[in-house]
Design a protein that fits this description.
- With 806 residues, the protein is mainly β.
- The protein contains three helices and 46 strands.
- The chain has a 22-stranded antiparallel barrel. The chain has a five-stranded mixed beta sheet with strand order 8-9-13-14-12, with no helix packed on it.
- A hairpin with a 2-residue loop joins strand 25 and strand 26.
- The longest helix is centred in the N-terminal third of the chain and has 10 residues.
- The protein is globular and about 100 Å long.
- The chain starts with a helix and ends in a 16-residue tail after the last strand.
Length: 806
């Protein structure tokens, strides 16, 4: 948050444009233990107008700062940093004293700071806010080198599934990039976080019960991923290179460049990640009604060559302190070459061999996304009165081609006959456009009104083809070949009032109430084998919250909101995935969206060496969507999402931070919740009560000067699902980081899944089958990374989260 706060100051800087005699101010900022304070904000204001910031900078690794080219005159210089008491003093630059040397400026620790744990040699990993929590990417050094999905594995309340699916308190959250619905990572609602390098992330904001000003499609809450951008004066940047190995190689790199003047800011960023990953998957199924295929044993192995590249640019123009413009562009490329082999064996109930085949799939996937964003912000005489306009458009070009070969084998693995050849392609072209207008108007000194409009337009065309080799030629399978078109419009308007009792900066009570109205138009259809659906609906989404602050600034909050969960394209798409021909998956065009009422009661308590946050939450959901599997008379398992009626979810969550010693800090997150299905089809064999629990422990150590060690442990209990149970998951990661080259360089070493224990799986059953599957990816890996910065505050921030760990 330090960089963000500083950016806000710099955005309102007003520099004199006329030529005159200038001077400078230099000094060094230390804490009460004579330790340099790095990244402290230093800025000067006019003596007669404290809102007019004349110039500013950030201290370097030695605590030193320099303010240059200052017009002569009377000023007030300010020093501030999270965890310290703010300090200011008058200064004067004259012709006789143009170069002022202040010497050492000592900042006192602020023991009343909400995050006082930061001042004892650690910056707090998790920060509690009025809306949720903020997690700093820079403090997660065990995940150096991977993707946003890897980083989320250490986030409170978040679970990352075996296939990269993200859930927050049991439901899919709304994923935002820089506060907006973005096409980066996928134009569909399910953002592919495997495509976003963790090295590009500044912080992650988690909002568990969002208010009416946020998109309603957030039944599980909101995860807002804030990407890095530099805002230092002048020309500056950073570069990082890393390499390592698991079962195969790992390589990645990052580059950041920035140039800032009084009115303009230009930025460039590039990230890449190249690797080869391996995966083993074992599946065992009992088919009670198939005597010749009573036991099905499957052994699957994959090798994936993966490459991800992202490039970003931004141009910011601030002609004056009331107006600012921003143009941002992003390009993303994701490529995978996946070679997958599945050997399936069938036996009778007495273990007599009845059949075997080897199915090989060679899948080539290329994914391109380009996105442009335009932002305009207008400030008025009252700086809290703002008008903001945002418009963005993303275009996706996705191509996936798969060659399949199925070879029948004898019990001794001798090929029988010729292989059966198939081809599939899945081509997707999509566009996602957002435009919004937001207005904030303060009401005297006791309240604030927020209102706005947002439109989301989503267009997706999918071309799916399947062909089989017959008589030496490939013949199109007309039943499983089609074109699928999906169009959606969401138009929303909101109005929200926030008020407080007491001083605005230090209220005793704070409350808000809001309403969001959304009209949705969506339709989908297939062309060759006609399937059509239309689902237009209008909903109102109210929200309210009440916050009480104790005299010691602890916080008690009660909140309510109504939310919706709209099915993603993958859940609508009727095409079947036949990579494993005995276990196939399809979407369901007949799905209805979920609607939910959510209530949360939370309490945050801070003490001298840490903090404690606990939350109790309840959610009542209609039309709940869950996957369901059946096995047909041919022994083929078919999984499809379905609506299961009404359900309720209730649970508890706790986040504990503690700094027992100056060299050691602890972050512990524990959560548990239960889902109860209240109404469903009595012919479906499902569990009506499903429990989930997990714990995440992060230990940080300052082992010596400029050296940090982090050890994290993750445990997820067995999770009840509609037809069975997901297996428990547990692993331990280690990361080490050392400052070198006078703080300009960083050297990091990470070891993920030290004991090679991280694997996933599930066991499900129905009236005619039992199925047990485990999945193991090469999660144990070692990586070494070097980062170097020049004239930049990115010393801590580039060498973050650079190691992929599935």
């Amino acid at each position: 948050m330090v960089r963000i706060i500083f950016c806000l100051f710099l955005f309102i800087i007003h520099l004199s444009a006329y030529a005159q005699e200038t001077g400078s101010i230099t000094g060094k900022v230390l804490d009460s233990e004579s330790t340099p304070v790095e990244f402290a904000n230093v800025f000067i204001t006019s003596k007669n107008d404290s809102t007019n910031i004349v110039s500013g900078t950030i201290t370097d690794s030695t605590g030193s700062f320099a303010l240059t080219n200052l017009p002569l005159g009377e000023y007030v210089i300010h020093f501030q940093f999270i965890g310290f008491v703010k300090q200011k003093q008058p200064v004067s630059l004259s012709a006789e004293n143009k170069n002022l040397k202040l010497g050492n400026i000592v900042l006192a620790f602020d023991i009343t700071d909400l995050n006082s744990v930061e001042v004892t040699a650690f910056r707090n990993l998790i920060q509690k806010t009025e809306e949720g929590i903020v997690v700093r990417a820079s403090e997660n050094i065990t995940q150096i080198g991977g993707t946003a999905a890897d980083l989320l594995k250490n986030m409170p309340g978040v679970l990352v599934g075996a296939e990269g699916e993200i859930t927050l308190r049991g439901k899919s959250p709304l994923i935002l990039i820089n506060g907006r619905v973005s096409g980066i990572g996928g134009v569909d609602r399910v953002t592919n976080l495997e495509q976003i390098p963790a090295s590009s992330i500044e912080r992650i904001e988690i909002i568990t019960n969002p208010s009416a000003k946020y998109d309603a499609d957030a039944e599980g809450g909101i995860i807002n991923i804030i990407l890095k951008q530099n805002a230092d004066w002048g020309t500056n940047g950073a570069v990082a290179l890393g390499g390592g190995f698991g079962d195969r190689y790992r390589i990645n790199g990052s580059l950041l460049l920035n140039h800032r003047t009084s009115k303009w800011n230009f930025g460039l960023a590039y990230d890449n990640w190249f690797t080869t990953r391996t995966r083993q998957q074992d599946g065992d199924r009992i088919n009670y009604n198939l005597p010749n295929e009573y036991f099905l044993t499957q052994r699957r192995s994959d090798e994936r060559i993966v490459q991800t590249q992202t490039a970003r640019f931004n141009i910011d123009y601030t002609p004056n302190k009331k107006n600012s413009f921003r143009l941002e562009g992003v390009w993303l490329f994701d490529g995978e070459d996946n070679r997958e082999t599945v050997i399936s064996t069938t036996e009778t109930a007495t273990y007599d061999f009845t059949g075997k085949n080897d199915r090989f799939a060679n899948e080539i996937r290329r994914f391109h996304t380009g996105e442009l964003l335009l932002n305009y912000t207008r400030k008025f005489k009252n700086p809290e009165q703002t008008l903001t306009f945002n418009a963005s458009s993303a275009i996706e070009y996705n191509r996936e081609n798969t060659d399949l070969s199925t070879q029948t084998l004898s019990e001794q693995n001798i090929p029988i006959g010729n292989p059966f050849l198939q081809k599939t392609h899945n081509y997707e072209d999509a566009n996602l456009t957002n435009f919004s207008v937001d207005y904030v108007h303060p009401i005297k000194e006791k309240g604030m009104i927020e209102t706005g409009y947002k439109g989301i337009l989503r267009f997706i065309d999918v071309d799916f083809l399947r062909s089989d080799q017959l008589g030496g030629n490939f013949v199109t399978d007309s039943i499983n070949t089609d074109l699928f078109k999906f169009n959606e419009q969401i138009h929303a308007a909101y109005l929200q009032y926030t008020g407080w009792i007491g001083d605005k900066q230090d209220p005793k009570w704070k409350y808000n109430a809001g309403i969001r109205a959304e009209q949705v138009f969506n339709e989908g259809n297939t062309i060759l084998n006609p399937i059509e659906f239309t689902n237009d609906y209008f909903n109102l989404f109210p929200s309210a919250s009440l916050i009480y602050y104790t005299p010691k600034r602890n916080m008690l909050k009660l909140s309510y909101s109504r939310r919706i969960n709209r099915p993603s394209l993958g859940r609508y798409n009727p095409f079947t995935d036949i990579t494993d021909s005995l276990n196939i998956y399809s979407g369901n065009p007949n799905l209805r969206p979920e609607l939910a009422h959510s209530v949360e009661l939370s309490y945050n308590h801070s003490f001298k060496k840490g903090s404690f946050t606990t939350s109790a939450f309840y959610r009542q959901t209609s039309n709940i969507i869950l996957p369901y599997t059946v096995v047909d008379s041919n022994g083929v398992g078919f999984t499809q999402p379905q609506n299961f009626g009404n359900a309720s979810t209730y649970g508890l969550e706790a986040i504990f931070t503690y700094n027992p010693f100056k060299f050691w800090s602890i972050n512990l997150n524990v959560s548990g919740y239960e889902l109860r299905i209240e109404e469903t089809d009595p012919t479906l064999n499902i569990q009506l009560s499903q429990f989930t629990g997990y714990a995440k422990l992060i230990n940080n150590f300052h082992v010596w000067k400029n050296g940090k060690l982090q050890i994290t442990g993750n445990y997820t209990s067995p999770i009840a699902i509609p037809q069975g149970e997901q297996n428990e998951v547990y692993f331990i990661d280690l990361g080490f980081q050392q400052r070198i080259m006078k703080g300009q360089g960083r050297l990091a070493l990470t070891v993920t899944d030290i004991f090679d224990t991280q694997q996933s799986g599930y066991r499900i059953s129905d009236t005619n089958f039992e199925f047990d599957r485990t999945r193991k990816v090469d999660t144990r890996a070692v990586m070494l990374i070097f980062a170097y910065t020049f004239r930049s505050e990115f010393k801590e921030k580039l060498l973050e989260n650079k190691f992929k760990n599935e």
